[in-house]
Design goal:
The chain is α/β, with parallel strands linked by helices. The protein has a single domain, classed as Alkaline Phosphatase, subunit A. Helices cover about 40% and strands about 15% of the residues. It contains 13 helices and 7 strands. A 7-stranded mixed β-sheet has the order 2-7-6-1-5-3-4, with helices on both faces. α10 packs antiparallel against α11. The protein is globular. The two termini are about 35 Å apart.
């Protein structure tokens, strides 16, 4: 599946020009690089293209976007999120299902933990509401306790994923507004839950994607309203762990399940769409590279940095 970005988003060229100007500002020397990775669970790219998502559209206008990106790991959340946040595939991190038991996160940590290992001065933050990502449930956590702050909102205690997502984003907004965050990950899970409960073609699923876009808007506003924003170079990354079939399922190898999207937006992002489709393992490597880390061959990662302008 391939969707023409400029057909899907007819005003993006003009909007992109305005946003590029707004992002560039005055030449004040090197800005402090920051990363915000937003994970939207279980998004089908053709339904995303049809949904009303003005906040994601705005990021696409000022960024690097592919709706042909691929996941080559099993299309369930465990291996998907592991590969995205680590930059390596299943044969290395050893998670091939939603049972994380037997993982090798000690050798292949998530990108936030990797940052802490390289330089503990990085201020790292994550908030999730799917338990294995941040807790010991099902053999987790994927995101280790080595990062500076990690929050978990339990959907079972918060009346479902919709409210837990809202609480997660509210917590992230507060941190982004008031703390010197260098790298953050925010997980939004209700889209996948609704996809399973209804179908990928249902109005409810599209509405869930549109609700997730509202949450994305809150996160971006928190970044842009920072008092230090003019002196910062924020890279906003958004991706999903897998697509899905028409009936809302996933886990197979169909094109609809393997096709995902990759979005990198901000002053350091290339503007436009790539000729070569990115891969899910590129997300973590792109984040690490933007933050100035040289990828050590000893880390044995599978991803590559994509969508970033060349550093002079």
């Amino acid at each position: 599946m391939r969707f023409d970005t400029l057909t899907r988003y007819p005003r993006l060229l003009l909007l992109g020009i305005g946003l590029t100007t707004a992002f560039s500002g005055c030449d004040k020397g090197p800005a402090t690089r920051k990363v915000l990775l937003i994970g939207l669970d279980g998004i089908r790219v053709d339904i995303l293209a049809e949904a009303n998502t003005p906040n994601i559209d705005r990021l696409i206008a000022n960024g690097f976007f592919s709706d042909r990106a691929q996941t080559k790991v099993r299309t369930v959340s465990g291996p998907g999120w592991s590969s995205m946040l680590i930059g390596a595939r299943t044969d290395k991190h050893l998670v091939n299902s939603n049972d994380f038991t037997g993982n090798d996160y000690a050798t292949y940590p998530d990108f936030l933990t990797r940052l802490e290992q390289v330089n503990p001065e990085f201020n790292t933050f994550a908030v999730v509401d799917w338990a294995p990502l941040g807790t010991t449930a099902s053999g987790g956590p994927l995101i280790s306790d080595a990062i500076d702050e990690k929050l978990f909102f339990d959907p079972e205690e918060e009346d479902g994923y919709s409210r837990a997502d809202s609480l997660s984003v509210a917590a992230a907004v507060e941190r982004l507004a008031n703390q010197d965050i260098d790298a953050a990950f925010v997980y939004i899970g209700n889209t996948d839950e609704v996809g399973h409960a209804t179908s990928s073609l249902s109005p409810e699923y599209r509405t869930a994607i549109e609700a997730a876009d509202v949450l994305v808007g809150r996160l971006i506003a928190a970044v842009e309203e920072r008092s230090t924003y003019a002196d910062e170079d924020w890279l906003i990354l958004i991706c999903t762990d897998h697509g899905r079939t028409d009936d809302g399922g996933h886990g197979g190898e169909s094109e609809k399940e393997r096709t995902i999207f990759f979005l990198a937006s901000g002053p350091s992002a290339i503007k436009g769409s790539p000729d070569t489709a990115p891969n899910i393992v590129d997300v973590a490597v792109t984040a690490l590279t933007h933050l100035g880390l040289e990828i050590d061959p000893a880390w044995n990662l599978d991803g590559r940095a994509v969508g970033l302008q060349r550093r002079q």
